[in-house]
Amino acid sequence: MKTYIVISLILWLLLYLQEKGKLLRNYNNKSYKPKLISYFLVNLFSGYNIPFLISSTYVFYFSGSRDDAFVYWLVLAGLIIMSASGLFLFCCGEFSIFSEKNNAIEKLCGIILIVLSFIMLFYLSMTVSRESEENKIIWMAMIMLFCVHLLIGRSYFYLALFNMYAKDNGVDL
Prior knowledge:
The chain is mostly helical.
């Protein structure tokens, strides 16, 4: 657990340095691809680290008293990944990141995945044992997952703006 917290703190420090413009400031100004890749990797890892950290507390706290705590954590992790892939599909369809056209099917599939993952998280919070109020950890993970979606959605929006700027000004990615 200590290693996980140290890695989380390093990721959040990298996110802070990136937002302040101190990370890769003068790195290869002719090609923006390394900057974009590092921007997205830091945002994805530091963003989705928060719900994983909260769901991991469920395992570490209840693993001594419950035999199925690890199984619940695997379900939580799968739902977080499912929601992240839904956000990816929605943003790619909405902001036309990888294609020129606005794809309604991608947006619909993304919305369905996101909503389905939140419904399944809600169902999981209702079915898990409530002896020590374990369901509050799942609720906290749901709230943090929503906040992370806002953070990552902002990154996709900025990427779409950058793509539009690059096409208008002839910048080569």
